[in-house]
Amino acid sequence: MTRIPRIPPFIGTTRSRSPAGFHAAVFGAPHGTPYPGIDNRIHATAPDAFRRALGEDGEWLDHWDFDIGGPLLADGTCRIADLGNLPTKSKDGKGNRKLIEAQTRKILAAGAVPLIFGGDDSIPIPFIAGFSGSSPLTILQIDAHIDWRDERYGEKFGFSSTMRRASEQAHVWRIVQVGARGLGSAREAEVRHAKQWGAHIFTSRHVHHNGLKDILDTIPPDSDCLITLDCDALDTSEMPAVAHPSPGGLTYMQVVDLIAGVAAKARIAGFTMVEFAPKKDRDGASAYTAARIAANIIGHIARQI
Q: Domain for residue 282, yes or no?
């Protein structure tokens, strides 16, 4: 059972305890699978930070959104629930994974598109697992790190293993990764394993020099695409509020243009947004930027129903 937040629901959504009767549903997962000695609580208040960031914007849903090319919810027939935050616990990785997967399955069973706000980047592992038994998925990971570690500190379900675990799930048939730069969480063996599996890896440098066409060409038309966004994919100038910032990242406009390009040829089947560190967001600008990306996702979902 989820806790309904005492703050505005995320923009365009309605507070609800159930996804039944909705086209999409947002929920928060403050904690994922912890590593020994690494504090995963730095991301715990991120879901509510995103809700607060667009609290006032929710009063203007009938206004033109120039990112989307019309009102956020199109003709207004799309109904999106905000299910609140799951009662995750900082050190209970197994329990947290169970909660996240169960909530994802519940939303899908209701015929809705699930959207999750983390939390750290281990959260997409059970979220993606919740899609098993559904149509084959293309995973689009937008991230500064490729996350192909088999284990770290003896833990196989932590935030360095997200795409490795995704690659082992039978319903995941394509992985496209965008934004890697610097020390992208991988040793030579992880890069080799990712490429041997068939992952399409596009660095941040590739995006800056070549644009998005090559990336969008790897997204199959009319496919189901699950988009997972790690906030550190964005450049530090636009997104300093992350655990591991590095220079040379993507811009807000590159990210929303990539999402728009995917939405133009495929169906957005799910979305995760992770690795936001609210205590590093001194003026609220980073939360607003991240929340606006999620709002773009909602705008495109409203146009695919």
A: yes
